[in-house]
Design goal:
The strands form four sheets. Strands 1, 2, 3 and 4 form a four-stranded mixed beta sheet that branches. About 40% of the residues lie in helices and about 20% in strands. The protein is of the alpha+beta class.
């Protein structure tokens, strides 16, 4: 269900929590909560999540009791302020909301949805760098040849499907070079350097003829011509 979260007030996939009011004026009241707010509350307030991720979808309707309903209402403003406050990401520095902040479950690295590497096997930049990017770059530099996806995966001992995605991403970001036919390589430093333009040495006899004409025209003296002749011929 897409609706505004009752806490952060952001349009998102939400869980609709149905509160059955007790007493004389009983009835039903809905409290919508998104995955980000639910996760934050369960972590920071040590409350159980309002749905079990992997077992129930976030739009699953369920009932909450009076205690839960009053608790959510009591922290709503506090959590809403935190969720909507702009703070820089520890990885890329872009200012964004808490809902866009991510902590990697595998390595604990903190990043955000703006620096998340969605096209890779690991969305975490730190995991990608350690498990894929650095080993691939080192391998291609050491081997200094065009290598297939299968060979690269075998050498760095990682699943082929992970390496395939990482190689495609790295190629798009110009971190490595694509040779076609599923082969990748890195240009050596020598090949990357622009070739120096070779300057063609002037023919001394051509220059000498120019100075001979200047002597014949009386522009330079015989002594000046002889001095230039020795210079040009290296005498």
């Amino acid at each position: 269900m897409t609706n505004k979260c009752s806490i952060c007030n952001v349009d998102s996939l939400v869980t609709e929590l149905i509160y059955n009011k007790p007493g004389l004026f009983s009835g039903k009241e809905s409290f919508f909560i998104c995955n980000e707010c639910s996760s934050y509350i369960s972590r920071e307030y040590e409350k159980p999540p309002y749905y079990d991720e992997g077992e129930k979808p976030p739009y699953f309707e369920e009932s909450i009791n009076t205690e839960d309903f009053e608790f959510l209402n009591s922290i709503k403003n506090e959590v809403s302020k935190l969720m909507n406050e702009l703070k820089p990401c520890e990885n890329c520095g872009i200012e964004n909301k808490l809902t866009k902040k991510i902590t990697c479950e595998d390595c604990g690295f903190k990043y955000c949805t703006d620096c998340e590497e969605e096209d890779c096997w690991y969305p975490c930049p730190n995991c990608n760098e350690k498990k894929h990017f650095n080993p691939i770059v080192k391998l291609l530099k050491d081997k200094s040849t065009k290598m297939t996806i299968t060979d690269i995966a075998a050498f760095i001992d990682q699943p082929r499907n992970e390496i395939k995605g990482a190689l495609r991403y790295m190629s798009e970001k110009k971190m490595i070079n694509y040779a076609g036919n599923g082969r990748y390589f890195i240009l050596s430093d020598e090949k990357k350097k622009p070739k120096k333009a070779t300057t063609k040495k002037a023919d001394p006899t051509v220059e000498l003829r120019k100075y001979a004409k200047l002597k014949d025209d009386g522009i330079i003296t015989e002594e000046e011509f002889q001095a230039k002749k020795k210079e040009l011929l290296g005498l």
